[in-house]
Amino acid sequence: MELRQRRSAGTSSTRADLPSTSSGSSKKEKRKNLVKRGCQVVLFKIVAAFLILYLAIPIWFYNSQWVRQHVVFLTFVNIPPFLNLSDPDGFGLHCPRNFYVESDPGIKLGTWYIPSDNEKCDRNGPLFQGEDPVVLYLHGNSGSRGGNHRVELYKLLTTKAKVNVVAFDYRGYGDSVSEEGPSVDGLVHDALAVYKWLRERVPAERVVVWGHSLGTGVATHLLADLNKLKERPAALVLESPFDELANVVKHHPLSRMHRFMPYFQDIFVDSLKNDPTTSFNSFEKSKLVDPKLPVMILHAKDDGVIPFSLADRLHKGFESSRGSSRSTEFVTFESELGYGHKYIYTHPGLHKKVRDFFDGAIASRSETDSQK
Short name of one Pfam family for this protein (predicted)? Predict the structure, then answer.
């Protein structure tokens, strides 16, 4: 009896020392459930992102003019942020002045005047004291007149090309006050308002309109409107231009995720083209610009925002409407230079190239006027 009891006790002790199989399987089950839930969350996020990217955004873009306007004009993008545009001295410019030009009642456009180095710095004296050309600069979308590459161009034009610069922000940009959102007509109207303000102080033969990127669309539309008014400035410069804004969408980096979709043309391209608030068509407007107006187009072959082919088509549009006239000059920059979309101003000989163009345009204008 004693022996049996000892064996029984020993057996009982051995069983008590074995690990519990039920607790081990429970931990495995928990891990499986965690992995399963994690996969479900990841899958849900992927599906949600797919639906937002390829269903919600296209529907929103197609049906909302407000969305299209914000995507095209990018007034909400301010890089660099927190600029004090009312104090242009902080941008390293020569003797700048800040003021506001009224476009329409309730719409005031923040404007800078930067005189040529040839002019004496007199902040209390009259504007445009000398005889140098005056560049009316029309910037592209996003940011303000205080954007880095824009300020560097002002410096080049005023210190090396020795011309005056007037730069302003359209409605909704920078510190320009407006309750209205941006649109094609709105931006062109703002440009016309500043042009008229400028013409009250400077003769037309000294004014050069210079547009960059989206601003080339504004500039071409402006010059077409001025031609209707029998008004012709000295010249037009189009830096990194396009033929039609709808064509830019086909190549723009922001559209890369949707280009392969079958609805891309209808949803994104045609909706912009058919919306008068976003439909910049410089190709058609080029035919309405005064054929005697000297035009210079500047474009880099490595432009990743507006392909070179679109500028080439615009150039052909100008030439086709001018017949034998040689008033259009197309200046191209090779890809190896790395100028891209907004660094043409870094080209070493640009200041001389544009100043010679300005002087030639002004001289030609004076000769034409004297023959009348």
Answer: Abhydrolase_1
What separation in angstroms does the CA of 63 have from each of 48, 68, 108, 267?
21, 9, 30, 9
Given 189, 212, 299, 341, which residue is catalytic?
341
Compute how many other C-beta atoms are within 10 angstroms of the C-beta atom of residue 318. Answer: 25
Give yes or no for a contact between 140 and 170, defined as CB atoms under 8 angstroms apart. no
Query: Using one digit for the tens of pLDDT, what is the confidence trace for 77-128?
Result: 988 888 999 999 999 999 999 999 999 998 999 999 999 999 888 888 889 9
- 89 assigned to active site: no
Per-residue confidence (pLDDT) for residue 5, from 0 to 100 = 45
pLDDT of residue 370: 64
3 state DSSP class of 113: strand
Contact 209, 223 (CB under 8 A): yes
Looking at residue 150, its pLDDT comes to: 98
Sheet strands (E) in 105-218: 107-114, 134-138, 164-168, 207-212
Long-range contacts of 336-340, Cβ-Cβ distance < 8 Å, separation of 24 or more: 337/300, 337/302, 338/302, 339/300, 339/302, 339/303, 340/300, 340/302, 340/303, 340/304, 340/305
Residue 177: φ, ψ to 5°: -90, 125
The letter for the amino acid at 62 is Y
Residues 95 and 363: their CA atoms lie apart, in Å, by: 28
- Secondary structure class of 299 (helix, strand, coil): strand
Residue 312 annotated in active site? no
Q: Which residues contact 99 (CB under 8 A, 6 or more apart)?
A: 111, 113
Catalytic residue among 213, 271, 279, 282: 213
Catalytic residue among 279, 282, 303, 315: 303
Q: Catalytic annotation on 86? A: no
Query: From the CB of residue 348, how many other CB atoms can be counted at a distance below 10 Å?
Result: 6
